Q: What sequence folds into this?
């Protein structure tokens, strides 16, 4: 893979966001020619600071994936599309379901239609989510688990994923789908909990305030950003990945209250409060979740390498240095 | 049920279409106050002739379910919504995926948001489709079968169904989902195969031309319109139906070439040609399908009563009399 991406033309939607920017940085290091697309909608993950170190080595195209016309132009001549743009907040999807639909489903059809018409030889990796499984019927959750999303975001992300697989089956476009679990690391949104609850935990911790743990007994797993970007790079370059759906996962699983303890310990100071789950969030909560990612390991040898403790340490280090650009 | 719908205010989306109009006719007979909504888009199933006998007893509102504003007004004060408006053509969903998305998914969110905000006490029956199962992994297909749609129409109808179930779970709106299989009978579209291939078969038969059977070995099941409307009426009135998803089915299953034979026999004359499956349709075909509808039978005592032969006879009789209004 070291040489695979050299001089490859790569397009990243959501490329100023958390994972998109980490991926762009990796790809620049591998010698790829990178164009990032981002809408920079203030409530979403895009942040120009995320690409500060590589801004002169990439092309930044500010546009919204809902803008059919820009997508028709931008997909042309590209070798790889990493399709990461999305609305990620579960609560926002309930309060504004149509915006979630337009970004996570309707825009995906735009993008796929643009690829089909103007660049059918493209290779696409689509960032899907564990949210499409809904409340797990068994653990760990593998890719054969029933799909029964519990919120609007899950329904729309499922449609987005199914469009991608359909364009692979019917039109032969090379597609790999990665179903992400909680992903954490430098460049994630920490202003609020729209991208991940860990963001707001870290913000409060750095501001010297107790952070809130809702419930606390829920079990979750976490992928560190460096492991996630390596998953995307493998999914794009390994021919065995084409036409497949893979779960990502992390270094084991952990109860949220134990994660809170670990975060405070790694930080060296800080505190948290256990709070009751707010009723409106409880209604769309998925209870316990952790992924079985062995299919991806078996087929493409991807494995999460960063231990959770190390992931938290590196993340805290990053925000201790750069919090001003994220809050 | 005889008295249940008396004086009930009932709204039917797609109410000038095949099933919508049959349902409106039944409901008028039961003493309900019926408003039908239809866009009368020429390629879809709406036809003013469908309600000729009851036109002075119902309110006809010509509007598109994509029109958010009209829906916000029309759902107010209604007891029952039979939500049947949809784009039904699988091929059209592939050539114009965004139109299919806007009708079968986006408009459904409009409708549900309108109900949540302006009429949360409404009871909704949603017309879903067996298309969301994709290629059956086993037969007969029950409601627990995996959902893996093979065309854009299937993806969008699945999203539409999941929105409905979600608004039931999260907001407590009374919802029942019926997954329809091939439905046939008077008032269906016979101009082309956009609603059902049987439509175009009947048109050719009545015009004295051989109709085309593509493949012929595919197994299908058929619900007669009278059985389908009785399913909708039960789903709306029986409290045990609320929060449930039910398959509809029919009088057994049959290979398409045997159905062609039966249709010609019932008609007393006519002929057909077996043709190879066109490549673009083969790619989105679901192979054999027939439903297990025992869940609906057990929970709500619905059962298809009309034998296939009788269904074909009544349908042919209707179009022999009224073909001019449909071609």
A:
């Amino acid at each position: 893979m070291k040489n695979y991406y050299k001089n490859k033309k790569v397009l990243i939607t959501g490329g100023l966001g958390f994972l998109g920017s980490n991926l762009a940085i990796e790809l620049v290091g591998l010698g790829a020619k990178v164009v990032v697309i981002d809408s920079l909608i203030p409530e979403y993950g895009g942040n120009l600071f995320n690409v500060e170190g590589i801004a002169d080595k990439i092309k930044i195209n500010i546009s919204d994936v809902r803008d059919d016309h820009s997508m028709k132009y931008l997909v042309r001549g590209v070798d790889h599309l990493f399709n990461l743009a999305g609305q990620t907040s579960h609560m926002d999807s309930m309060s504004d379901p149509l915006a979630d639909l337009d970004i996570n489903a309707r825009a995906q059809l735009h993008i796929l239609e643009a690829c089909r018409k103007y660049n059918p030889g493209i290779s696409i990796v689509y960032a899907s989510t564990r949210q499409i499984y809904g409340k797990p019927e068994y653990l760990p959750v593998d890719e054969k688990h029933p799909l029964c999303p519990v919120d609007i975001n899950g329904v729309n992300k499922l449609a987005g994923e199914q469009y991608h697989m359909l364009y692979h089956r019917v039109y032969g476009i090379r597609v790999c789908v990665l179903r992400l679990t909680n992903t954490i690391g430098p460049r994630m949104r920490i202003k609020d909990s729209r991208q991940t609850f860990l963001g707001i935990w870290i913000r409060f911790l750095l501001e010297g305030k107790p952070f809130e743990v809702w419930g606390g007994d829920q079990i979750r797993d976490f992928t560190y950003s460096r492991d996630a970007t390596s998953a995307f790079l493998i999914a794009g370059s390994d021919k065995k990945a084409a036409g497949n759906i893979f779960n990502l996962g992390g270094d084991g699983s952990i109860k949220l209250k134990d994660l809170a303890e670990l975060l405070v310990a790694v930080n060296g100071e800080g505190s948290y409060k256990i709070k009751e789950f707010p009723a409106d969030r409880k209604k769309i909560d998925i209870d316990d979740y952790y992924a079985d990612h062995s299919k991806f390991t078996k087929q493409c040898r991807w494995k999460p390498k960063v231990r959770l403790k190390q992931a938290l340490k590196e993340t805290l280090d990053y925000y201790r240095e750069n919090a001003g650009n994220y809050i």
About this structure: The two ends of chain B are 36 Å apart (CA to CA). The longest strand of chain B covers residues 123-129. Chain B touches chain A through 28 residues (CB under 8 Å).
